[in-house]
Structure formats: C-alpha cells, structure tokens
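Recall the central idea of this unit: under ordinary conditions, the amino acid sequence of a chain determines the structure it adopts. In this exercise we apply that idea directly, starting from the sequence alone.
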Amino acid sequence: MKSKREITKILEKAENGTRISEEEASALFQCQDLLLLGDCANTIARKKNGAIVSYIVDRNINYTNICTASCAFCAFSRKIGHPEAFLLTYDEIEKKVVEMVDLGGTQVLLQGGLHPELPLEWYTELISLMKEKFPRVVFHAFSPPEILNLAKISKKDPWEVITALKEAGWQSMPGGGAEILAEQARLKMGKTKATTDEWLDIMELCHQAEIGTTATMMFGHVETKENRIEHFSRLRKLQDRTGGFRAFIPWIFQPGNNPLGKKITHKATSFDYLQTLAVSRIFLDNFQNIQGSWVTMGKKVGQLSLFFGANDLGSTMIEENVVSAAGCAHTMDEQDMIYLISDAGFTPLKRDTFYSYHPD
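Accordingly, the structure predicted from this sequence is:
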C-alpha cells in the first residue's frame, strides 16, 4: 500500500493535468482517505466545468421488456408469452413523449430488451415518425446490444444498422450494456448481451458515424477494483481515438429481484460509490462530464457526488423502469434538482443531450 505522501504525489500529478497510470489508479483505490480523493476529483471537475452543475429533463421509455438475453442482473426483462411481457405501440410512445414535452423535457432515453422478432424497419419508422412530430426532442436511444441484435435479425452488419437509424433521425446512444468492461468479470456475471470488445466496437462505429454517446459502468457485484480500472482504461483509450463520449456515468448494481443479486452478500456502500466516482474523474482525463447517480444512491449521496468529481446530476427522470424493477426507487422533479444543486453551492443549469445549456 502506498504512503499518504505517495498518494498525494499521484493526486498532484492529476491536478496538474498529467495522466495517471493504471497502477496509480490501483493505489488510489487502496487509499482510505476519501476526502483526500474527493478534494482532488472536485478540483479537476471545477477546472473543467467551473461552478456549473447541469441536469436534464427527460423521460425513460422502455418500448419493450421482451428480451432473449436472460442477464443474471436484470429484474426487468420477460420472454415472449409471459403475462407481464409488453411492446408499446407507436401511439403509446407518442403519448409518453407528449407528456414529457409538456413538462419541459427535451430528451427521450429510448431502450428496450433484445426483441427476437422486431425488424429494423420498426425502429427506423418509429424514429422517423417521432422526429417528424417532435423535431426538437432528441432520442437518446438504443444500446450496443440492441444494435447487434438488430444486425442479426436484419442480416446486416452493425454499420448498416447504425447508418439506417441515423438517416431516420437517430442522434445519440446511451451507454447501456457496458456493465463492467472486463471480460473476466462479465463471464462471472453470467450471460451478458455483448462482449467487452463488441460493446466498444459498436461505440466506435457510432463515433465514426458522428453519433455521440455516453459511457456507463455498473459496479458492486462480482468485479474487482482491477476490473473497474480496466473498464476505465478501455474507455480512455477509445476516447483518445474518437472523442465521441460526452459523459461517463458510474452506478451501483441493484441486487433486488434478480439472480445475480442472490449471490451478492454485501451491497456496495456509499463510500465505495464515492471513491469509485472520484477515481473515475481523476483517471478519465479526456472526459468532460461525469454524472452523479442520485437514482441508485438517493438524493443526499447524489448531492455529495458533486464534491467527488461529478459535474452533472443527470435527469429528473419523469419515468424509470429498469432500476426500479430491482427494488430501487428514488424520484425527483425539476425544482428538487435545482434545490439540490443550489444547496450544495453550485450553479444549476438545464442542459440538452449535447450539454448545451438552457437556463430557462
């Protein structure tokens, strides 16, 4: 274990804009002085973004819970024929978008399970229709596993799927399906929807197509701290090549109502979350935005995240289904979000998908 003096040298190096190594990140994970890590992460975040903390008003629309993947960490998916299985119609999706727009929302996070039968045309027609009716709404949609599934169903390569969706009006991809980008840990988790390399390859294709994306990490299950560092490192290398990631969003695995959760004896703590958040900000020097996760951690820890490297608190989340299916349900409206940020001493600014600010 490194001495406090050695840890301080690593942190000073990062604060001065010099990239830290994987070995140095490992030393930071061994450091139990959480406030020391947080101070460095906060300094870096403020250098990049000043006193501004952004948020967005959006809605998560899960168009289907029908999925072939059977991921051990998911409490949301169902098989075709299950009494709780659903597939929303275009009209049902449109109604949800209207409700969001009426509340000042500008983004739809549109994701679903890996449906075994929906053709590519279902998706392109949906995006085209929604963009025609809501030209100012960005559909932050799909995920690498969904692209791979569509490629398989349509007998096209992933690039053809990505370009077809882009031509229909698709503009942005969230980081779903990343989980932990270390194949050793993914195999321990059980069946996942894409390999580490497949997830990264689809992200790189999106960046080449000028579809910006976000990156996520789900931790606090079977992975090690070294697996987390590998995840950070794979993201940093891709960002060096493409610059296509707008933000990084780490969040803690929710063990309720899923097979993987039954194997976990200790749920990740707030200390673990804040330490990991801080190390991600320090290591991911080429990411402008790091998002705090009030959805999984609650409002107070979400507020604390602003002192541990986060400069964004994500969405007010008019609707959310996947995390809540695992037994974690926190809610917040726009006024709550503004108060939470202001109360911490920062300047709240409403943003859009592309991190352009809309203070109204």
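The two ends are 49 Å apart (CA to CA).
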